[in-house]
Q: What sequence folds into this?
């Protein structure tokens, strides 16, 4: 096992209005390392009073120095922040792996990549332009401005803690908003270290506030607080629905990035030596704990047996182990309830008659017995009526579904309440161009899978959510348009007629 030195501090603190604070109640909760199964950090357990203090701080900061700062100056602070994150990337990655058990290689890649978001959106800050409208009223000058919304409540999950927060914070801050961010109760540690860099970069006090606590205790207050203008949420669809309903009471703007049951489709004409690792990376990378997991492999019947055989052989070689070890390929599940949920779904799949091809249980290796592992698992001959084909497992469980032709592949892929992503493996260029139009998904990868970038929009169709993160248009999710009318003609208004 790789060394896991204790944190320098016994108890961590939250960031509220530029102050490092304990919860008003003085309570803490334990954060667990999913590989050792042991608590390794004490995190403040925020209550409603802490939410109120954070929103108040963000609200004051929105009306203060941050608001009067030029967009270029805002962008420069974000660029400084990006440099600091780049310097700290390795430390942040280790914190993330210890807190959520995801592979160090993946967390390193994410933490090194995060600065690009702050550079890109920081650079965009002073390129948001209004318009001059050629208005149809003589002597009137009409122009538009794009203005920030106010306080943004960012609520994020445990699977990619800093990356998914970055997708919200970078555009929200570039647009001139202030933020109250609550990371998941299962992965709050890296957020509190990330928070130190906001201070160092020179963000005015209260522009970024980080509170830690349980969703069921403080989530509702974050969403319904009268001074919160917008809620940006990533998480499960059941919670997303609750957040949307709660936000409706205050008519707040909402973006939701929810679950998926993404189809990764292999046609007989695919380059199988690329498609097989593509299928594996779609589901077993991140131990299946990713919203874009390609959890349904749709395989054309003429190559079905061949693909299944190769897939099982390939996945069998995956090294399960300590996520801090760069050679490990499959890490533990982040939380104990999530492991139970994954094992329950494996049981359901068996009961429904799916053919178990691989895995299906907790690994027997004693060296990793303390960790919250589930073996990479595959089910064959899955049919659309099975729950394993319809519901998000969020674990290393692949459902393999045969299809005859293009029409059937599209019908199966689209037969889902979700529509986050889809993958497509084919050497037929026409099909590679034709099919993305037919697939009901916000992201389609052809001959690749699971790529994201600060430059390209990310978000769901159907019940995978709405609003887009990443890419230039994401900043408009955090802006509102104002129309300004000026009578430049010195005319005297007719009092009782609309102009
Ligand atoms: O997520 P939640 P959980 C799926 C996955 C998983 C299921 C539940 O299938 O099994 O969701 O996981 C906060 N008001 N995904 O319980 O509840 C919570 O504190 C406001 C998919 O961990 O969605 C956390 O910060 N906020 C997914 C955030 O919501 C509330 C990623 C997400 O937690 C709240 C994670 C409330 N009432 C899980 N209750 C993806 N698609 O990426 C909780 N929260």
A:
């Amino acid at each position: 096992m790789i060394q896991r030195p204790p944190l320098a501090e016994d108890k961590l603190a939250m960031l509220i209005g530029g102050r490092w604070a304990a919860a008003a109640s003085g309570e803490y909760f334990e954060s667990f390392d999913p590989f050792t199964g042991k608590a390794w950090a004490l995190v403040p357990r925020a209550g409603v009073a802490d939410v109120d203090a954070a929103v108040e701080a963000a609200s004051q900061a929105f009306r203060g120095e941050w608001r009067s700062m030029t967009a270029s100056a805002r962008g420069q602070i974000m660029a400084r922040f990006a440099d600091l994150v780049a310097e700290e990337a390795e430390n942040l990655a280790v914190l993330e792996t210890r807190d959520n058990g995801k592979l160090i290689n993946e967390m390193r890649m994410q933490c090194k990549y995060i600065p690009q978001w702050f550079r890109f959106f920081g650079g965009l800050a002073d390129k948001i332009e209004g318009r001059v409208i050629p208005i149809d009223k003589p002597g009137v000058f009409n122009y538009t401005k794009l203005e920030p919304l106010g306080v943004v409540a960012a609520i994020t999950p445990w699977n990619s803690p800093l990356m998914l927060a970055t997708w919200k914070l970078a555009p929200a801050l570039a647009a001139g908003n202030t933020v109250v961010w609550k990371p998941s109760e299962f992965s709050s540690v890296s957020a509190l270290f990330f928070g130190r860099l906001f201070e160092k970069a020179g963000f005015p006090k209260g522009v970024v506030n980080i509170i830690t606590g349980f969703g069921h205790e403080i989530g509702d207050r974050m969403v319904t607080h009268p001074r919160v203008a917008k809620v940006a949420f990533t998480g499960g669809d059941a919670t997303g629905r609750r957040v949307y309903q709660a936000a409706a009471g205050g008519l707040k703007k909402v973006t939701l990035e929810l679950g998926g049951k993404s189809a990764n489709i292999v046609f007989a004409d695919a380059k199988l030596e690329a498609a097989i690792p593509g299928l594996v990376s779609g589901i077993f990378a991140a131990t299946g704990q990713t919203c874009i997991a390609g959890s349904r492999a749709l395989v054309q019947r003429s190559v079905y047996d061949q693909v299944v055989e190769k897939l099982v052989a390939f996945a069998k070689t995956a090294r399960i182990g300590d996520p801090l070890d760069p050679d490990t390929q499959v890490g533990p599940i982040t939380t104990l309830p999530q492991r139970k949920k994954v094992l329950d779904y494996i049981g359901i799949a068996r009961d429904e008659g799916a053919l178990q091809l691989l895995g299906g249980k907790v690994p027997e290796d004693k060296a990793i017995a303390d960790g919250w592992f589930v073996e990479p698992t595959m089910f064959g001959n899955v049919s659309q009526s099975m729950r394993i084909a319809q519901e998000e497992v969020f674990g290393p469980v692949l459902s393999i579904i045969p299809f005859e032709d293009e029409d059937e592949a599209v019908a199966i892929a689209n037969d889902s309440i979700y529509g986050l992503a889809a993958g497509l493996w084919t050497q037929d260029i026409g099909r590679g161009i034709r099919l993305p139009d037919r697939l009901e998904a916000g992201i389609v990868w052809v001959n690749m899978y699971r790529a994201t970038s600060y430059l390209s929009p990310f978000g769901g169709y159907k019940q995978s959510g709405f609003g887009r993160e990443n890419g230039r248009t994401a900043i408009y999710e955090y802006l509102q348009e104002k129309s300004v009318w000026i009578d430049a003609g010195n005319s005297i208004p007719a009092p009782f007629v609309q102009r």
